[in-house]
Design goal:
alpha/beta, Arc Repressor Mutant, subunit A, UDP-N-acetylmuramoyl-L-alanine:D-glutamate ligase, ten-stranded mixed beta sheet, four-stranded mixed beta sheet, 14 helices, 21% strand, binds adenosine-5'-triphosphate, binds alpha-D-ribofuranose
Length: 404
């Protein structure tokens, strides 16, 4: 094995187990302890590991140390190479001693500007807001927060502008539980933002999103995901990025044998012809209606819609239905997961909480029904909190699950 390859494998191993001894690495890679010491010193100089007595510790979030300027690249060549490998032999996934599931998320970061209102304004009406906040959001970032809180090792990829909100995004992700992230920047568009009304009547929301930089992810930036996908269980995606990037990420994951969970929000008809890349699609009622052409108003119409979505190519479907819970359609069987009772304060990000927690549970090896039940408990706690990215702790989820 060449030096660079061995060093990459050492990093992969440490990413999984956090700490390893020189003696163990030397016997695993069949080299002398001196060689390993020199590898670890080189990796330490790059800021990737920290030397400790007798070995090394991974420097957590080693990928986040800077905002990264965009580059150009050729995605098609990479995909062709992966596909030709797949025909010769299945892609060798580098999974060693897995401690918890790993979820990769390619998705949006937005700045959420939220006005709390007694009721939604009518067209042409000005209304005094009861409160206002500016905070982190974006379906991708929210789902990354949720999956991390739900116990997954998360790698998040997103893109922002070069405005002051890019630093805001960086600070938010750095201070979070997200294991590692890459935050690209572009001069061409501002950081994404969302103007949100949250009604005091029922915690419901109205949102207008300007995706901005989220729409400028390049092929090369998607190709960079390859290294992370090699050790991932799940790729979780939404539809707030340029669809070319989302599609390429799905193709990459499929070529590498990584499960794809697609939260088709906000709905775009682009996804209709690409459902065969998706293992589990998780629309809410509105998105399920648009995907299937069947208006979802209750469980019976949700069943019809789920069947229509599978006919269009998706393998498994979960339709989330707010306080009515979620409907699973898997292997021609339906299962309804009721919502957990909650005191709803702000439903913004309920879907993100559900999707992030669901992906974490699937990555950890749960069945689809177990994962959806966990996600429903997790999301019921999220609607009790203000702010789309404000996710509960695992202990709170355990208590709520025990109440069922
Ligand atoms: P949003 O767009 O507001 O982020 P969404 O429409 O994508 O949300 P929902 O279907 O409203 O997603 O909610 C996702 C899941 O969250 C539901 O399946 C349910 O398990 C849980 N949930 C949502 N609202 C409530 C509620 N009021 N009480 C309990 N659980 C809820
Ligand atoms: O799902 C909620 C999210 O949708 C908000 O954080 C907003 O930024 C939009 O992306």
């Amino acid at each position: 094995m060449f030096l660079e390859e061995r060093r990459e494998k050492i990093i992969d191993y440490l990413e999984d187990v956090e700490r390893a001894s020189v003696a163990w690495l030397a016997s695993t890679f069949n080299v002398t302890k001196e060689t390993i010491r020199s590898d670890l010193s080189a990796l330490a100089r790059q800021g990737l590991v920290q030397r400790c007595h007798g070995g090394a510790i991974i420097v957590r979030r080693n990928l986040q140390s800077r905002l990264i300027k965009e580059t150009g690249g050729n995605f098609a060549v990479l995909l062709k190479r992966l596909e030709s490998q797949r025909h010769k032999q299945p892609y060798q996934r580098e999974k060693t001693r897995k401690m918890k599931g790993k979820v990769c998320i390619l998705g949006s970061f937005n700045v959420d500007i939220v006005a709390k209102v007694a009721r939604f304004p009518k067209g042409g009406e000005s209304l005094l807001a009861l409160g206002s906040t500016l905070g982190p959001g974006g379906k991708g970032a929210n789902q990354a927060m949720a999956a991390s809180r739900a116990g997954a090792r998360v790698h998040f990829v997103s893109k922002v502008g070069t405005d002051q909100f890019s630093q805001f995004a960086f600070d938010h992700l750095s201070g979070s539980d997200i294991h590692s992230f890459r935050l690209y920047q572009t001069d061409a568009e501002p950081t994404g933002n969302a103007i949100i009304y949250v009604s005091q009547q029922n915690g419901e929301n109205m949102i207008a999103i300007y995706s901005g930089a989220n729409q400028t992810i390049t092929d090369d930036e998607v190709a960079e995901l390859t290294h992370e996908l090699a050790t991932a269980d799940v790729l979780l995606l939404q539809l707030e990025n340029n669809f070319s990037a989302t599609l390429n990420a799905m193709k990459l994951a499929q070529a590498m044998g990584v499960q794809v969970i697609m939260n088709p929000a906000p709905f775009s008809s682009d996804i209709l012809s690409c459902l065969h890349y998706v293992d589990v699609v998780t629309p809410n009622e509105t998105e399920a209606s648009l995907l299937s052409g069947i208006e979802v108003t209750d469980l019976a119409s949700a069943r019809e819609a789920a069947q229509a979505i599978v006919r269009q190519g998706a393998r498994r479907v979960i339709i989330t239905m707010g306080s009515r819970g979620a409907l699973i359609y898997d292997n021609q069987q339906f299962q309804h997961i009721p919502a957990f009772p909650a005191l709803s304060v702000d439903t913004t990000g309920a879907g993100d909480a559900f999707n992030g927690a669901f992906a974490a549970a699937i990555a950890a090896g749960d069945t689809i029904a177990q994962a959806a039940t966990y996600a429903a408990a997790f999301a019921s706690l999220a609607v009790e909190r203000e702010g789309a990215s404000n996710m509960p702790q695992q202990q709170q989820v355990a208590v709520r699950l025990a109440q069922r």
